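Ticket #4471: structure export looks truncated?
Reporter: QA, pipeline team
Priority: medium

Steps to reproduce: submit the single chain below to the structure queue and open the exported record.
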Amino acid sequence: MIRTWDDGTISDTEDVPISEDAIPLRKSADSEGHSNKASEDTQTTKSTDIGEDGNPYYHQLESSTQEKRQEEQAFRKQLNKSIRNMVSGTNHQGIRLIVHRPEITPEFIEEYNKLYSETMPVVKELVRKTMPLLIHEDSTSISKNHLYGSQFNADSIAKKDFRYYAKKRPPDESPSLVVALRIDESASMSAFGRLEAAKHAAVAVYEFCEQCKIPIIIYGDTADRSPMEQMSLYAYCDSTHSEQDDRFRLMNIQGRSNNRDGMAIRILSEKLLMAKEHTKLMISISDGQPKAMPDYSGDVAISDMQMVLKEYRRKGITFLAAAIGQDKDTICDIYGKESFLDITDLRQLPVRLVKIIARYLSR
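Actual output as written to the record:
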């Protein structure tokens, strides 16, 4: 089960067994952190999505127009300006930053539809179980954590956001949730099936949030691509500029260089604070501890990350770290055990993340 603590951290105490929910992924026999026992479920799950003509459904690229291309270019420029402003006045102010919006290729579309067909049976079942949470047939449902209301919540008094009241939720009001998924794109993500697991997870989270109408932000990040590009962000999905074709950009996720985690988490936290939704959840998928040139490593980097997490927890953001690599102990120390999710079997990653998001809909 997921327990939410007063400071916004969460604890995942549920043991998710390897079952029909598991997403099949390739696994190296000598991969660190993986079981040496061969999986009994090695067959690829096929999608049951059928179009009106009876054929399997595949996502297709929307037609591109000059106006749409200009709009996309303007959005990319606006992203670069606004995100640079987010780190102004911080210890990352002098870092040369570029925000990318990957171009969509036919190969991306083909790969996405393949992962979609493998992932969607599980996601559709979780959506089916979750949708009743979004339907309020009467106004007896209570929405908590408000600045005003008809009912005082004594259990909220320990929080410092002054949201001590509850009120009845109107029949047409859905739970207020926004999700940010941050993906570490350091070079080590290319090893041991981690990259494939991250892509499966991104597809699962995107499609689940899309079907449940949850605003979703998905960014990847790496550091030190060049002296002129010390920090690189990849804006795959952004709730402020949502496009149907964004799903295909997720296939650009790849292992690249180093990672400056504190800067990436600060930027995504700022984007979450801009959202109107009350519950703000950030999930970070990472395989290692922070390390970037010239001296962002060890105690310096860990201290920076812990400072960022503390700052934004006070502002109401809940963090979850999904550790999929060799530095799990360090990641646990940085985020705290209440916010740490140990993914020993990478096949569990997509379904566990989607289940956690689903639980937050009932808050």
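Status: closed, not a bug. The export was complete when the record was re-opened. Leaving a note from the reviewer for reference: The chain has two domains: 2-11+65-136+174-360, 138-172.
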